[in-house]
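User: For documentation purposes, I need each entry recorded in a consistent format: the amino acid sequence on its own, followed directly by the corresponding structure tokens. There are two entries in this batch. Please keep commentary to a minimum and don't merge the entries.

Assistant: Recorded as requested. Entry 1:
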Amino acid sequence: MKKVEEKALILSTFTSVLLSFAVVIGVISFIVLKARQLRDYKDKWKDYDECGV
């Protein structure tokens, strides 16, 4: 019975770590995507800022 409990604990720990990495990667991807979109938006409109439109 002890081996089964150890296996379950290892599997649970591994799953938790894997899900944590997935969440961290998702958050970082979201931040990078938003920053890139903002930069592209500013680049698109920077020429019009100078003419006063």
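Entry 2:
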Amino acid sequence: MIKEGNSRRTFFKKAAAVVGVVAVADYTKTLISSPPGSTNDGSEKYASDVNIQERILSQKQLVLMTDDEKKQRLDELLDNYHKDFA
């Protein structure tokens, strides 16, 4: 016999309650952290940073990689990939 505390129905009720609490907490955090009258658009917040970065990049010269550098970089990436999944 299945105990009432261990049934699927009880599990799903608890899971739904947890999801609801997390959703409400996240929504509340969003309301509290954003000042009144502000938008959640990050473009206004970081516009000056983007402009500074674009100015710096526009002053730099583009240097193409040689075939040897490309092969070396690809080998490094593949070695690291295989180390992570080995």
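Summary note for entry 2:
Residues 30 and 40 are 9 Å apart (CA to CA).
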